[in-house]
Design a protein that fits this description.
This protein is an all-alpha fold. The chain has a two-stranded antiparallel ribbon. A hairpin with a 6-residue loop joins strand 1 and strand 2. The longest helix is centred in the middle third of the chain and has 37 residues. It is rod-shaped, with a radius of gyration of 56 Å.
Amino acid sequence: MAGEAIFEIGRRLKDVRDCPQKYGLSGYRDWEQWCEGECDITRQHANRFIKVVDELGTSGFRDAALGIKVLYEIATLPPEQREIAHAVPSTGAEKTVDEMTVRELREVKAALKAEREAREKVQADYETVRDTLESMRDEPAKVEIRTEYVTVTDESAEERLRRYEEKFGDLEIYEAGAARIDGVSDISASLQTFSYEARALMKKYGFLAQFGAVV
């Protein structure tokens, strides 16, 4: 009879809350005052009765000799968790929800919540990784080309250059405009030019020889 009374109280409280005009009430504030004035309970306590009726009103829990606190904890469990046995975390004992105390029900609810949050986190992480992989797959491949310059030393060329400079001097003199004579024909031409220019010089300044004795 106690269990039946809880559901009956919850049904009548629900009627007052959902149809306030029928009882001369005009709003949320009047509903709260009505609970305290007419029933000597808080609005929160009244809402617990209503929650039990909404969730368990047509279930087998209606006939169980359970108090309002236990019924409320059962009513706030997910529907699929109300009809199965659970291991109580603190003791490991397996019980159905109507066999548990309020404390045991709260332990089970906390464990179920932690399990649900862990599962949701795993699912969120999986979706993040999946979206990242899909975005990487859709992006064009990036190719990075690097050019590196390597200095290669030709030891034989360096040796030939050293020997050349030993024989003919520093190559910089050729960069300044000096010319090197190659071949017999070039040498003959140069000698002829020198001979011609020497005779011209002697002819031009030969008269100076007569003053040699005086000087």
